[in-house]
Amino acid sequence: MRRSQINKACSDALACFARHSWALPPKPRWDVTDFGLGDFDRQGLTAVNLASEPEYCEKLMYARQGQETPCHTHARKKEDIICRAGVLSVSLWPARPDRLLAGFPVLSVNIDGEPVAVVPGSPISLAAGSRVTIIPGVWHSFVAASAECIIGEVSTANDDVNDNYFLDANVGRFPSIDEDEPRAASLVSE
Fold first, then answer.
1. Domain parsing of the chain, residue ranges
2. How far, in Å, CA of 9 to CA of 16, rounded?
3. 50-166 adopts what CATH topology?
């Protein structure tokens, strides 16, 4: 990614957070990625790590319409993905989507704290305030379905290096950076 793309992503996220009265901590730790796929507008995410402790983590994320977080799972992390503003579309699978057999049974997930039967791969639409609980081993992807979307994540300990398993082997968690302008924000990967 170009540093100018990263700076603009942080600026766009800050503006959206301000419009929705989300205050960030001093010296926010930014995480902006195109997942190493080179198409930030299609597969990208802008996040701020609000808390990163040995027992828990909290993130505030921003995506523009159509920006997808690619399909992945975690072996240890349990998380709530929360739509804070806009509309978020989440897809879930009980196993690797490319290895599911036809007629695989529905998946039971908690949406807003209540168990819901979900057909694997069928998008779930989360309006502002709604959340889905994702347990370890459940494959998931999400995409902003509105012009802008603020996404919250509250989870057990976060390990982006050792506990992210992406369906697409080409995905890289942190982007390489082309320094085409001065850095405006500190990234967790730097």
1. 50-166
2. 11
3. Jelly Rolls (2.60.120)
CA distance 158 to 162: 9
**Could you give the C-alpha distances from 136 to 74, 76, 90, 105, in angstroms and in order?**
5, 5, 16, 18
- Give the chain's length: 190
The CA distance from 144 to 45, in Å, is: 10
Q: Is the dihedral of CA 3, 57, 25, 61 positive or negative?
A: positive
Is the pLDDT confidence value at 103 over 70? no
- pLDDT tens for 118-163 read 999 999 999 999 999 999 999 999 999 999 999 999 999 988 888 9
- Predicted confidence band of residue 102 (pLDDT cuts 50, 70, 90): low
Residue 104, class by beta-carbon neighbours within 10 Å (0-12 exposed, 13-18 middle, 19+ buried)?
Answer: middle
Residue 8 has pLDDT above 70, yes or no: yes
Q: Can you give the pLDDT at residue 186? A: 85
Inter-residue long-range contacts of 162-167, CB under 8 Å, 24+ positions, other chains counted:
163/74, 163/75, 163/76, 163/77, 164/72, 164/74, 165/72, 165/73, 165/74, 165/75, 166/35, 166/70, 166/71, 166/72, 167/70, 167/71, 167/72, 167/96, 167/97, 167/98, 167/139
